[in-house]
Design brief:
This protein is of the alpha/beta class. It folds into two domains: about 1-160 and about 395-419, 2-Layer Sandwich (Nucleotidyltransferase, domain 5); about 210-390, 2-Layer Sandwich (Nucleotidyltransferase, domain 5). Helices cover about 40% and strands about 15% of the residues. The protein has helices at about 55-60, 70-80, 120-125, 135-150, 170, 175-185, 190-205, 260-270, 270-280, 285-290, 295-300, 305-330, 340-345, 345-355, 365-370, 390-419, and strands at about 1-10, 10-20, 25-35, 40-45, 95-105, 115, 155-160, 215-220, 225-230, 235, 335-340, 385. The strands form two sheets. The protein has a seven-stranded mixed sheet with strand order 4-3-2-1-5-7-6, with helices on both faces. The chain has a five-stranded mixed sheet with strand order 10-9-8-11-12, sandwiched between helices. Helix 1 (about 55-60) crosses helix 2 (about 70-80), helix 11 (about 295-300) packs across helix 12 (about 305-330) and helix 12 (about 305-330) packs across helix 14 (about 345-355).
Length: about 425
């Protein structure tokens, strides 16, 4: 069974194709950017060894090229690429037997991945008020695939689903309960697919029963979140009602005094939209030193720029603070996992974050850390420190394939009963 995984953004569509089986294997990937803008770009990685332009450029710019005005055009373009002589992944779209979509927000309604029908699509629309930048593009991708692939089953995999096990005392805010009961204001958490994947990998590496494990997963990239995973279940996470809460990020402020937005509105005359843009797009690392990429900031700090050094210290301090608090919440920790662009590649940042973790009996091996080994802790460390590349698309492909197979089995049983 071939499964197509779609991640729809406001002006982009990322995709991967998997051969689904006991261990799903990726066979193609790509991205279409600048949807609805001039000069659309299609990057194809057919051979999965590097991103390269091949038939994609002919599709976009050839005599019968497509104008990528919307997500439907983008899905048509990627289908044309998958069936091209250069790519050759499928000869007919019917070979795609399942389509999995990343959906950021599932609210309280969706606690796991699910096959999409009219009711599910309506639920995703309802949750759009909680994720206005993320759910609408996912809906566009779902609707486009519905028209192009006709009767092919589609599956929604929610970023929030992994966190549905967080207890009420952790997900509720200290505000009037009516805001939660009537409007759903609570902690939902995000990056759940990533936290689910890397925590499961970590549990496999620990020499103890899964239900006895205590893992802290650190997804660190341009967006960052920390999750406490006890017995394989999320029990707390740093992001909240929106992805703005939590640790300081590339351009997001993270935690701050909730009166600060009121101050900006009342004292500086900023509008709600201006405050929103400031906290989401001009804060975090960028707000402190003018740069959002840790690689650039580390280079400038090494050259003696004080603002960059301050930004690095602020970031590492806030991540460390969450790790410490989650160790307390779980009465200890067996493994700390680093993933995401910074987590997987930032040896210096990992060392900064864990420089005061000796109280946990944690020790880092500098040589292993420098080469980003899977386990960068010393042999006698009481806490394992794991570097695990995340693979959210694999999770989406696995859930999609499983649900499609289950649906087929259910259909077969119903047909047999009718006979």
């Amino acid at each position: 069974m071939k499964v197509l995984v779609i991640n729809s953004g406001s002006s982009s569509v990322k995709y991967k194709v998997y051969e689904y089986g006991t261990s799903p294997q990726a066979i193609a990937k790509g991205m279409i950017e600048r949807i609805g803008l001039s000069g659309p770009i299609m990057n194809c990685g057919c051979c999965l060894t590097k991103w390269e332009a091949c038939a994609s450029q002919e599709i976009l710019r050839g005599p019968h090229g497509l104008e990528i005005k919307n997500h439907s055009d983008a899905i048509h373009a990627l289908c044309k690429l998958l069936m091209s002589d250069t790519c050759g992944i499928v000869s007919d779209l019917s070979e795609i037997e399942g389509i999995g979509h990343r959906v950021v927000h599932g609210g309280e309604e969706f606690t796991g991945s699910t096959i999409i029908d009219d009711a599910v699509l309506a639920g995703i629309r309802k949750c759009a008020k909680l994720a206005p930048l993320h759910n609408p593009p996912a809906i566009l991708g779902i609707e486009a695939c519905e028209k192009i692939f006709k009767n092919t089953p589609q599956v929604a995999v929610f970023d929030t689903a992994f966190h549905h096990t967080i207890p009420r005392n952790a997900y509720l805010y200290g505000i009037p309960m009516d805001f939660y009961k009537q409007h759903g204001v609570r902690r939902y958490g995000f990056h759940g697919t990533s936290h689910r994947y890397v925590s499961q990998k970590a549990i496999e590496l620990l020499d103890k029963p899964a239900d006895k494990t205590r893992v802290i997963t650190c997804h660190l990239g341009n967006g960052c979140s920390i999750t406490a995973v006890k017995g394989g279940k999320s029990v707390d996470t740093s992001m909240g009602l929106t992805p703005l809460e939590g640790v300081m990020m590339g351009t997001r402020s993270g935690d701050l005094d909730p009166a600060i937005p009121l101050f900006l509105i009342r004292e500086l005359g900023m509008s709600a939209d201006e405050v929103d843009a400031t906290l989401n797009k001009m804060s975090g690392l960028k707000g402190i030193c003018g740069k959002a990429d840790v690689r650039d900031i580390e280079r400038l700090a090494a050259e003696g720029e004080a603002a960059s050094e301050l930004a690095l210290n602020m970031f590492s301090y806030r991540v460390a603070r969450y790790i410490g608090s989650y160790a307390m919440v779980m009465n200890g920790v067996d493994a700390i996992v680093f993933t995401g662009g910074i987590g997987e590649n930032g040896a210096a940042m990992r060392a900064r974050i864990l420089q005061n973790a000796n109280y946990l009996g944690l020790k880092i091996d500098p040589e292993k850390n420098a080469r980003s080994a899977t386990d960068i802790a010393t042999a006698d460390s009481k806490v394992r420190v794991l570097v695990i590349p995340t693979d959210e698309e694999l999770v989406i492909a696995s859930d999609t394939g499983r649900l499609v197979e289950e649906a087929r089995g259910s259909d077969s049983r119903e047909a047999a009963l009718v006979k």
